[in-house]
Write a structure and sequence with these properties.
cytoplasm; globular; 11 helices; 390 residues; Protein-L-isoaspartate O-methyltransferase; transferase; SAM-dependent_MTases_sf; S-adenosyl-L-methionine; alpha+beta
Length: 390
């Protein structure tokens, strides 16, 4: 797994690599789910693989060290003392994140011995274990809103010889009264929680994915407190992000909506010599996520396909020769025009891939290009969403 992270994700020699090599993942995740039903089969069906069953070990090892997501909890169940068997219906409610994403974020966190670390969203305990290995467990606090996850993590981290402080509670509130050199949030949010910013020590760094209701174009917020106490932050466009936190609204393209987009002729077709925005223009797509609202991309389509589930509008782009495209649209929104107008604004702002993130003392937050010509506010958290975590 580590060799694959080096080859494909640029994992470098250093403390994160050493910690991953030293971490027996089967201790943290002695059970994991594997889906046995087809993706479109309803209800879905999973089998729970168990390390204590010798016949399960080869498949479980493949899951644990394959680098992909590891499914650890079904329908909010307790993790300790459960029997291996088939589950159907409901959904997977906790998983260990894809290792390429986790490793790159842990490297960016710049963990060092003796640091005080807050791990928000305990999950299977992987990031907490890495932090304990690098920084020492006395300075590590791991926090989750699901008591079943914290109970299991406390036991399994102890089996590894680590005894961090394990806290059950709302993630966005952090640990009131404490200060941390590093804060890592393992789920996406609509904005940076002010309580976590307040808990950054001088010289501290906070990482959290920030996204709208759409899962398509996320950003990574990097927040730092300088030695003299000032807060500086940026929002960087990224390709992949953590899953949305508990209670956060999400919009998707349903199977039926995707079928309609790909099969129907649309209400308007135009020939264009304007190229669709490139996938590599991540800074533009991050702006699309926040400024054009309600759009979701079908990344499984061969060419650019975007839908707006709330109003039924959609866009399909098909190449028809050298530097010519058919732009097929339907619905009340002209998504193509919206994209081209925003692309012009983005280019006029210098085609940024990252934006300054302003976190005001009164709680307001907004992102802006360096020249200030492209900006948007981040939404306030709704009262019912305060303190949610995965």
């Amino acid at each position: 797994m580590v060799a694959e992270l080096e080859a494909r994700h640029g994992l470098r020699p250093g403390p994160v690599r050493d910690a991953l090599l030293a971490l027996p993942r089967e201790v943290l995740m002695p059970q994991a789910y594997v889906r046995r039903s087809a993706p479109d089969k309803d209800p879905p069906r999973w089998d729970l693989l168990d390390w204590s069953a010798p016949e399960d070990r080869p498949e479980l090892l493949g899951l644990l060290y394959g680098g992909g997501s590891v499914l650890v909890q079904h329908d909010g169940e307790p993790l300790l003392g459960r029997a291996g068997r088939t589950r159907s219906g409901a959904s997977i409610t906790s998983m260990s994140t894809v290792m390429g994403l986790t490793a790159s974020l842990l490297e960016e966190l710049d963990l060092r011995s003796g640091q005080r670390v807050l791990d928000v969203g305990t999950g299977a305990g992987v990031t907490a274990a890495v932090a304990c290995q690098i920084c020492g467990d006395r300075g590590v606090v791991t926090l989750d809103r699901d008591r079943h996850l914290t109970d299991a993590a406390e036991v399994r981290l102890a089996d590894l010889g680590f005894r961090p402080q394990v806290v059950y509670g709302p993630g966005e509130q952090g640990v009131p009264g404490a200060e941390f050199d590093r804060i890592f949030v393992s789920y996406a949010m609509e904005r940076v929680p002010q309580a976590l910013v307040d808990q950054l020590a001088p010289g501290g760094r906070l990482l959290v994915h920030v996204t709208s209701a759409s899962p398509s174009w996320p950003g990574l917020a990097i927040v730092e407190r300088t030695a003299d106490g000032r807060i500086t932050a940026q929002l960087r466009a990224v390709e992949f992000a953590h899953r949305a936190g508990h209670g956060m609204e999400r919009i998707w393209l349903s199977k039926e909506f995707r079928r309609r987009i790909n099969a129907e002729p649309g209400t308007w077709t135009q020939r264009s010599m304007l190229a669709p925005p490139a996938d590599a223009d991540r800074g533009l797509w991050l702006a699309v996520d926040h400024l054009l609202g309600g759009l979701v991309r079908d990344f499984g389509a061969e060419h650019l396909v975007i839908g707006a589930p709330r109003c039924g509008s959609w866009l399909r782009v098909e190449p028809v020769g050298h530097r010519r495209w058919n732009i097929i649209t339907q619905g009340p929104r002209d998504i193509w025009k919206e994209l081209q107008d925003l692309k012009a604004r983005w280019q006029a702002a210098g085609s940024p891939s990252r934006y300054r993130l302003y976190i005001e003392p009164d709680g307001g937050q907004h992102a802006a290009s360096a020249c200030g010509r492209l900006s948007w506010p981040l939404p306030n958290l709704h009262p019912l969403d305060q303190g949610s975590a995965p």
